[in-house]
Write a structure and sequence with these properties.
Elements: E1 3-7, H1 11-22, E2 26-30, H2 34-41, H3 52-61, E3 65-68, H4 71-75, E4 80-83, H5 98-110, E5 115-119, H6 127-138, E6 146-150, H7 160-165, E7 170-173, H8 177-187, E8 194-197, H9 199-230, H10 234-242, H11 263-276, H12 282-306, E9 313-317, H13 332-342, E10 346-350, H14 355-361, E11 365-367, H15 371-375, E12 380-383, H16 395-401, E13 406-409, H17 416-421, E14 425-427
Parallel strand pairs: 1-2, 1-4, 2-3, 4-5, 5-6, 7-8, 9-10, 9-12, 10-11, 12-13, 13-14
Helix pairs in contact: 1-3, 5-6, 9-11, 9-12, 11-12, 12-13
The chain binds nicotinamide-adenine-dinucleotide.
């Protein structure tokens, strides 16, 4: 049993803290957001993540997990301080490290006993050394016995607990074996490959992994656009490629492109880092550009289908950047909504979990209670997120409610024949559909 303090109770911090508690450790999760901690103390989750609430409740009741806003209380006697604060995009695409700095300064100011500082936030290469420097400088008069370990997180929102408990690998970056071995002990019950590297390599593994996954998606979207022009079917192309073990089946589904709290900011941050170090990240720049264009192509397709979009009513199914999360950070749906509004379209939306977050972010839209309200009076429907509940939607009912019968399936979720047979003009991404009805 170790005493662990987790700094930041977002998707990563809350899942990390709760899972380590579930493995038998004594965990205090800390956040500067009083409202968030107040709610967590009452059992109210700040995020939607399947299975999280139950796991938090169980571990709070067992006395292994608690929440606080008080740094001194959280770090007192802790063997490990995990930094899991946000690292959003700065103005120029760089990672904004203000929250990491603030966490490091608080550790420097309040920790007295030996501690391993574990950086779980996704941070630019070199940040581990920078955090060491911040703490060392701040404790110049009264040196602290500490080491920094980089431990990038690879969990996916929507399956975060499972990903944490059954990781493909754990990566630990450290300049000395002892602190890495100490952190490795925490993960030992997960019986997964644990890779120990130097700190900078560990930091790069995280960025390179995300950039590679984003590249796969942008690649297949570029192929999808070619398929549209050349009369091929991208879903079949993906399947045919995916049988090849060197390629694999994951992350080669065409659609509206990648979004979320990680890929966009991480690809941009890596490209920014590359330029700062004198290399030319031309592949990453293309990956970003293809993704941006993928969102814009939706507007082109709708213009083709509807003519002017002024005063047209467009329904959007799904707002979150992917299913099973309420996270809407950099979701493709948001940009699509914005572009359509710019052309004068009237927007109505529904998402199974992301409505509260959307209400804070999206203006001048009608928020609906279900997919059928979204269809009511609409000239076109766009499927932006492939939530389960949209998979077997009642197309007959939708048809009866819509003013014009145009569907743009941004995730290639539906069977084109089936949708067409219900009297819709159906468009998707790269499967050879072009608004034909049966
Ligand atoms: N969300 C993901 O799926 C995911 C996956 C892998 C890695 N990551 C990385 O993990 C990090 C955290 O991501 P997230 O999505 O959990 O972030 P988040 O925005 O959901 O949560 C961050 C939390 O940190 C808190 N915070 C900010 N400054 C603080 C401070 N000084 N002290 C204490 N708490 C503070 C915020 O109040 C917030 O609750 C990021 O670097 C991200 O890139 C995220």
């Amino acid at each position: 049993m170790s005493k662990i303090c987790v700094i930041g109770t977002g998707y990563v911090g809350l899942v990390t803290g709760t899972c380590f508690a579930d493995l038998g450790n004594d965990v205090t999760c800390l956040d500067v957001d009083e409202n968030r901690i107040g709610n967590l103390k009452k059992g109210i989750m700040p995020i939607y993540e399947p299975g999280l609430e139950e796991l938090v409740t169980r571990n709070v009741e067992s006395g292994r997990l608690c929440f606080t806003t008080n740094y001194a209380e959280a770090v007192k006697g802790a063997d490990f301080a995990f930094i899991a604060v946000g690292t959003p995009s700065g103005g120029d695409g760089e990672a904004d490290l203000q929250y990491v700095r603030s966490a490091a300064e608080s550790i420097a100011d309040l920790v007295n006993d030996p501690i391993v500082v574990v950086n779980k936030s996704t941070v630019p290469v070199g940040t581990g050394d920078w955090v060491t420097e911040i703490i060392t400088k701040r404790r110049a008069g009264k040196p602290l016995d500490f080491m920094v370990v980089s431990n990038p997180e690879f969990l996916r929102e929507g399956s975060a607990i499972n990903d944490f408990m059954f990781p493909d690998r754990v990566v630990l970056g450290s300049s000395k074996p002892e602190p890495a071995n100490a952190v490795a002990q925490l993960y030992e019950p997960l019986r997964c490959p644990i890779m120990v590297t130097d700190i900078r390599t560990a930091e790069m593994i995280k960025y390179a992994s995300n950039a590679f996954l984003a590249t796969k998606i942008s690649f297949i979207n570029e192929i999808a656009n070619m398929c549209e022009e050349m009369g091929a079917n991208v879903s079949e192309v993906s399947r045919g490629m995916g049988y090849d073990h060197r390629i694999g089946t994951h992350f080669i589904d065409a659609g509206l492109g990648w979004g979320g709290s990680c890929f966009p900011k991480d690809v941009k941050a890596l490209a920014h880092m590359a330029v700062l170090h004198g290399t030319h990240p031309q592949l990453l720049q293309a990956v970003i550009e293809i993704n941006r264009n993928q969102r814009r192509r939706v507007v082109l397709k709708l213009r083709k289908a509807l003519g002017s979009l002024d005063d047209k009513v467009i329904g959007i199914l799904g707002i979150s950047f992917k299913p099973n999360t309420d996270d809407i950070r950099d979701a493709p749906s948001l940009e699509v909504i914005h572009l359509l509004q710019n052309e004068g379209a009237v927007i109505q939306v529904y998402d199974p979990q992301a409505m509260e977050n959307a209400k804070k972010e999206v203006k001048r839209v009608k928020f609906c209670e279900n997919p059928y309200q979204v269809a009511d009076g609409a000239d076109a429907l766009i499927l932006a997120t492939e939530w389960n509940e949209f998979k077997q939607i009642d197309f007959k009912k939708i048809h009866a409610l819509m003013r014009q019968h145009i569907i743009l399936d941004g995730r290639n979720l539906w069977n084109p024949e089936l949708v067409r047979s219900q009297g819709f003009k159906y468009y998707d991404i790269g499967r050879g559909t072009n608004g034909e009805t049966e």
